[in-house]
Design brief:
single chain, 280 residues, alpha+beta, Alpha-Beta Plaits, four-stranded antiparallel sheet, 9 helices, 45% helix, globular, TACO1_YebC_N
Length: 280
């Protein structure tokens, strides 16, 4: 396939078309000031939850790639911690991520669990543990508490390499620089890309996907681009085939609380769901 045609396919990709905006019809509860404040707070809290989960993962990945949970001996980890602080991640969240890094250095085997919540939301929980019985017990306990259960949901996701990049402030997405970057990504085997759900006008972020086995070379090629585009993280990600939408706000909040409780389990590395919390 020619690069031009692949780049064209990006422009009409369903990932790109599915932006981080969601329109809901007005509710029957009225249009009072408190209702608007409540909705804004819920959206803000959801955005923070996505950010905290991503930064937790970036800290753990940086510790593994740099070979140490000591930021003085690991430049990648030091940079991840600096970034987390700059983006307002609470100190206790950062401390917990570091504790998981230290635990991961001692011992641990990787396990992946699948679950379904409210008959429509797929969940994948990645864990590292030195006691599988303890971990699966803790995961099941949380799922049961929230009326969810373990069942195969892997078919609801695609497993891709995912590289998160950010544009320097003032760099427009339609600029020649970004166009060249997209061409480079396509040449290196990119499958698709989309705007990150944590993206904002001040901090534009995009997710570029590639086959899992090509992640290392893909990340290296994008990292060497420079010119106002920075690679922030790289990981193997579970991307929903279709994000679950149309749930009642109460159900979305319950799923959010389930995810938070799963992330509180010491052995949890990452929780993936088919629910787009930015729709709240």
């Amino acid at each position: 396939m020619h690069i031009a045609s692949l780049r064209s396919s990006f422009r009409i990709s369903p990932f790109v078309a599915r932006r981080c905006l969601f329109t809901q019809p007005p509710t029957q509860a009225g249009h009072n000031k408190w209702s608007k404040i409540k909705d804004k707070k819920a959206a803000h809290d959801a955005q923070k939850s996505v950010l905290y989960a991503r930064m937790n993962n970036e800290i753990i990945v940086a510790a593994k790639k740099g070979g140490s949970a000591d930021p003085e001996k690991n430049v990648l980890l030091a940079n991840a911690l600096k970034k987390a602080k700059e983006q307002g991640v609470p100190k206790e969240n950062i401390a917990k991520s570091l504790a998981r890094c230290i635990g991961g250095e001692r011992s641990g085997e990787r396990f992946t669990y699948e679950a379904l919540a409210f008959n429509s939301v797929g969940i994948i929980i990645e864990c590292i543990t030195n006691n599988a019985n303890r971990t699966i017990h803790n995961v099941r306990e949380v799922l049961t508490k929230h009326s969810a259960h373990m069942t195969p949901v892997n078919y609801l996701f695609h497993r891709h390499g995912c590289v998160t990049v950010s544009l320097e402030q003032g760099l427009d997405f339609d600029s020649p620089t970004v166009s060249k970057f997209i061409d480079l990504a396509s040449e290196q085997g990119a499958i698709d890309f989309e705007e990150a759900r944590t993206s904002s006008e001040e901090h534009q972020q995009y997710l570029f996907y590639c086959p899992p086995q090509q992640l290392a070379s893909f990340e290296e090629a994008l990292s060497n681009f420079g010119s106002g585009i920075e690679v922030e993280s790289a990981e193997i990600a579970y991307i929903p085939s279709d994000r679950t939408q149309g749930l009642e706000s109460e159900v979305e909040q319950q799923v959010k609380e389930l995810v938070q409780d799963l992330e509180e389990i010491d052995d949890t590395l990452r929780v993936w769901t088919t629910l787009d919390f930015t729709s709240t």
